[in-house]
Amino acid sequence: IRSWIIKGFNVYFITAREATHFDVTKDWLYKHGILFTHLYVGQVNKADCNIMGELNYYIDDSLYQLWMINETHKKPKLFLIDQPWNQLNEDDKQDHFQRVMEFTDIEYLI
After folding, report:
1. 11 φψ region: left (φ > 0), alpha (ψ -120 to 50), beta (else)
2. Could you tell me if 1 and 36 are in contact, meaning their C-beta atoms sit under 8 angstroms apart?
3. Does residue 81 contact residue 102 with C-beta atoms inside 8 Å?
4. Alpha-carbon distance 75 to 53, whole Å?
5. How far apart are the C-alpha atoms of 82 and 27, rounded to whole Å?
6. What gap in Å lies between CA 67 and CA 78, rounded to an integer?
7. Which end of the chain is more exposed for a tag (fewer CB within 10 A), N or C?
């Protein structure tokens, strides 16, 4: 993520954590060396976030969020961070997103 900011990308963190947790979330990200340019909290349905249409790329570990974003916004390229809780059934389609193991995998894809 650091290299994306150095290259001039805007990096938005959009989280469903309650808006009252803004400072705690921001402090945790800084403490762990995770850089960002914008932080949005309280976004339970991330597809409703007012900046979603401006994004070129969107990364999440929630299949639900990717499906919702794909239904409402066609612009961002979607990436799913592989986790045990987001495995697909063989009948599910994944043609609207790219599954990756970690953030560094995305650097080679954009």
Report:
1. beta
2. yes
3. yes
4. 6
5. 25
6. 10
7. C
What does the pLDDT average to over 76-91?
82
What b/e sequence results for 16-46 when a residue is b if at least 16 CB atoms lie within 10 Å of its CB, and e otherwise? ebeeeeeeebeeebeeeeeeeeeebbebeeb
Residue 43 is predicted with a pLDDT of 76
In this predicted structure, what is the pLDDT of residue 92?
61
Helices (H), ranges, 1-110: 2-6, 22-31, 63-72, 103-107
| Beta strands 77-81; 97-100: pairing state | parallel
> Over the stretch 20-29, which tens digit does the pLDDT of each residue have?
989 999 999 9
